[in-house]
Specification:
Shape: globular
Number of strands: 20
Number of helices: 15
Distance between the termini: 46 Å
Length: about 525
């Protein structure tokens, strides 16, 4: 290998990308005393968990339905990550997780109060009262196992021994659910086909998969934490989370560099030793953490410039490619509208599905978020933010001329606005600001392969047992984020960040002996 030259100081760890998973990893390591550098290709932190400003509006890049901001237990991972670096964010509690607008007039709002939600669902399916209670109570069992133990790296035998001693029943209970998917459990208790379809869309709204391909561990966290810790929106927008983590990182002697595009992970044999930037600069570190997608890191699915050259890709990554494919990206529209078009008692989050068969189809499901119903400071006086998005494949947007691309954006945006109008009539006439993002936009600005928001199984798999952990087949190279256990969602990538930092901390000998309180 050619000689690496860098003017930088010696780093214990370099994190490639400042998504929430990468920032949690970096800040956790910095708190433990490691010297950490985060390299971000864009001008702001957060990735799909960031925010941007336009004409007095503060828009969230991705979804604004945030789990992990509770006050108790171990599953409130965003709260814990911020607290560990001395930060706290004011939040607004959302009384309803999601209002569903489903086929044949099937409408239901998932109330923050668990008993109210169960009562509302039973009123729609009175013949399934027992099945409904058994299914969601099973989700609670999984949640209580998760919430009884510190959620750190299950790759560290010492940690596993400590946590088993602290909570043996929770450990055994959690192990039981690792190979199980939601669909298996739902069908055990529920027979009504429409109710089973509702369980599918309950999973799809955050996992982008139906119940038969959604791990029960993830569902146990989401279906229960929305009632335990609740959905809580950060004051100032989702991007504030990343901003505060960066402040905490820097206050603990860590650093972040923007406009720093990593093009290559440097290897000596089968050992990662540093990174190379697009500028040609080389920076060395003891540990390298990729917060890029698995495809951006190791290649596959047509990725032309992965960080690891093809001849150095471990065999384990080829196995992973056979099991997982990129999920669709999204067509997004950010609107500023007259607030008179949004009733004051409207719910913040909505999902629209016209036909059950459309759930996994191109632009089949429409998600709507109106965060100004919780935090009015995000928009000018008299205005609301409406962020709507629908799954869309990069394949639908490739090979278009500039004029055809522009026309397709306009047509798809009008179709999306028409769907919003079914919930908020007259909204299309009250738009004062509009921005449209396609899968190409997500790929360009977030650096995500195909604009994807993470991997989904290419086949039916046994729960989470096939998800890769933070370690890779290359020594001193780790992965974090939605391509690692336990998958997609801000709370899930925070889990991944805690686990990655703990795993690296064990190698560096900087982990505290005692478990978190």
């Amino acid at each position: 290998m050619d000689d690496h030259k860098s003017t930088q100081k010696s780093w214990d760890a370099i994190v490639i990308g400042s998504g929430l998973g990468g920032l949690v990893t970096a800040s956790q390591l910095a708190v433990k005393g490691a010297k950490v550098l985060v390299l971000e290709r864009y001008t702001i932190p957060g990735g799909s968990g960031g925010s941007f400003q336009r004409n007095g509006f503060t828009f969230d890049v991705g979804a604004s339905m945030i789990f992990g901001f509770g006050e108790n237990g171990y599953t409130n991972l965003l709260t814990r990550a911020l607290a560990d670096v001395g930060k706290r964010i004011e939040t607004f509690p959302d009384p309803v997780q999601l209002a569903y607008h489903l086929p044949d007039g099937f409408n239901i709002a998932v109330n923050r109060n668990y008993d109210q939600f169960i009562s509302d669902l039973i009123s729609l399916f009175p013949h399934e009262e027992s099945g409904i209670k058994h299914f969601y109570e099973t989700c609670w069992k999984v949640f209580h196992c998760l919430d009884a133990m510190p959620l750190l790296s299950i790759e560290d035998p010492t940690y596993l021994a400590k946590v088993f001693f602290k909570a043996p029943l929770a450990c055994l209970g959690l192990a039981r659910w690792l190979p199980v998917n939601v669909g298996d459990v739902a069908k055990r208790y529920i027979k009504d086909s429409e109710l089973l379809k509702f369980i599918d869309i309950e999973c799809f709204c955050w996992s982008v998969m139906p119940a038969e391909r959604t791990p029960m561990i993830n569902a146990g966290m989401v279906f229960s934490d929305r009632h335990a810790g609740g959905i809580n929106y950060p004051k100032g927008g989702v991007g504030v989370i990343a901003q505060e983590l960066v402040k905490g990182l820097e206050e603990h002697s860590g650093a972040i560099r923007y406009k720093s595009l990593v093009t290559k992970i440097l290897l000596e044999g089968n050992r990662a030793v540093g990174v190379q930037l697009a500028s040609g600069e080389k920076i060395l570190a003891k540990k390298i953490i990729s917060n890029a997608t698995r495809w951006n890191t190791f290649g596959g699915e047509g990725c032309k410039q992965p960080l690891i050259e093809p001849s150095k890709v471990p065999s384990s990554e080829y196995k992973w490619r056979n099991r997982y494919i990129p999920s669709s990206s999204f067509l997004s529209i950010h609107l500023g509208v007259n607030n008179l078009t949004i009733p004051k008692d409207a719910h913040c989050h909505h999902l629209i599905l016209k036909e059950w068969d459309d759930m996994e189809k191109e632009q089949g499901v429409c998600f709507i978020s109106i965060p100004t119903l919780l935090d009015q400071s995000l928009a000018p006086e008299g205005k609301h933010i409406v962020h709507a998005f629908t799954p869309s494949s990069i394949k639908e947007w490739e090979g278009l001329s500039p004029s055809a691309y522009k026309e397709k954006k306009t047509v798809c945006a009008e179709r999306l606005i028409a769907k919003i109008n079914t919930v908020f009539p007259g909204l299309s006439e009250a738009i004062s600001h509009q921005e449209i993002g396609t899968p190409r936009t997500h790929r360009r600005f977030l650096g995500r392969h195909q604009g994807s928001y993470g991997p989904i199984p290419s086949m039916r798999l046994p729960g989470l047992l096939t998800m890769p952990f933070n370690s890779t087949g290359i020594k001193n190279l780790f992965c974090v984020g939605d391509s690692s256990f336990p998958g997609q969602g801000l709370n899930a990538v925070a889990f991944s960040g805690f686990a990655c930092a703990h795993r690296i901390g064990a190698d560096l000998g900087i982990n505290p002996w005692s478990l978190p309180n």
